[in-house]
Amino acid sequence: MPKSQFFRVATEGATTDGRNIDRATIEQIAATYNPKTYGARIWLEHIRGILPDSQFKAYGDVIAVKAEEVDTDSGKKLALFAQIEPTPELVAINKAKQKLYTSLEIQPDFADSAQPYLVGLGVTDSPASLGTEALKFSAGRKQQSANLFTSAVEVTLEFDEPQGIKLADAVKNLLSRFSHKSGTDAAQFADISEAVQALAGHVVTANDNYTGTLARLEKAETALKATQDELAAFKSQMDAAPGNGPRRPAATGNDGAVQTEF
């Protein structure tokens, strides 16, 4: 899964329940957070689902945090930045401009250490959903009643470019080794170089197109499967309907002879 760049998740100041997250708290969280000790997972609206196919399943992990000072309207303040490893579902949700705000869940006394610790990261649609008017509802989402939620902060997920050299760059690097040629050879080489680079570009484009086509085919296959399931269910309902039971045999009548009375 891709790793995000660091983004701000909290700034020293007010929390949703009136308790302040001060500079010391941010410093301690940045110093003590270790995913190997306890990894904070990402949850929709801070709701921890128990089923892997639930809408409230975990949507990734916080893999690192750090503290840095930032400029605010009220002067410099210490902020906490997080790096996450989101699931593809969270990436898609973020690209769709949903759940753009993050809120920390902090345990003030983690494992009897007398130090605060980051135990969860919630994603929500707006800061208001985690404001003071939602405290009663939010309290039920906390892992422990003493935990606090920080004010929600809007974020944009950005990802580091994958390591390695892209195909087009690799071709350019290879051809640059022969750039010292001169005269007729240089002219011929320039033509070859241009052709090879163009070919590399077409290969990259074709690969991107293939990836997009494959994604569309998978989506169409999923839709087709859903339609087939619906048709099968409808057929089962029709077969089980009372009107489809055994029918009365058709009347055969007589052979056309007229009966008379004696």
Write down the Rg.
32 Å
- Please report the distance between the alpha carbons of the first and last residues: 98 Å
What shape does the CA trace take? flat
Number of strands: 10
Q: Biggest β-sheet: count, sense, barrel?
A: 5 strands, mixed
Helix content: 25-40%
How many domains, in number, for the residues? Answer: 2
- Contiguous low-pLDDT stretches (5 residues minimum) are 128-140
Strand content: 15-25%
Q: Helical region count? A: 5
Mean pLDDT: 75
Series of H and E elements: EEEHEEEHEEHEEHH
Secondary-structure-derived class: alpha+beta
Short account of what is shown:
With 262 residues, this protein is α+β, with helices and mostly antiparallel strands. The protein has helices at 23-32, 88-95, 135-139, 167-176, 183-240; strands at 7-11, 13-14, 20-21, 41-44, 60-72, 75-86, 101-107, 117-124, 148-149, 153-154.
Explain what the structure shows:
The protein has five helices and ten strands. It has 262 residues and is α+β, with helices and mostly antiparallel strands. It has two domains: 7-154, no CATH class; 167-238. Strand 5 and strand 6 form a beta hairpin. The longest helix has 58 residues, at 183-240. The N and C termini lie far apart (98 Å). Mean pLDDT is 75; it is low at 128-140.
